[in-house]
Amino acid sequence: MIDHLVAALRSGQVEPLLAPGAVLVSDGGGQVAVPLQPVHGVREIARVITVHCTRPGADLSVVRANGRPAIVVRRSGRAQAVLCLDVADEVVTHLWLILNPAKLTAWHCDVPPPDDTGDHTADRRADASG
After folding, report:
1. Predicted confidence (pLDDT) at residue 120 exceeds the cutoff of 80
2. What is the reported pTM?
């Protein structure tokens, strides 16, 4: 499912992968403008995650964070966001969008060479609630 979400983010077709009752919680740490209250509604959630996860030059990597499937958004090796999710019945039900720069430092990395085949799916903490 996570690979489908990455493809959907890249194509702009996120809405079909979200459950009708999906909820998004975001953390900008007072440094990044994000909704302060949980976001409800497929269209609004799709808009928020698309804005924060598909900026020009963004590289999306599938990982595990906080025991959940997640996507790390990096630009030039610097983490810009971590998007954790829960899935049920083949749709995303809950999302946690971490944009707080203080919580992203562990996700910064050197940009691997194009032929790097290492496993980059280790589980890390992104300090998302849940």
Report:
1. no
2. 0.81
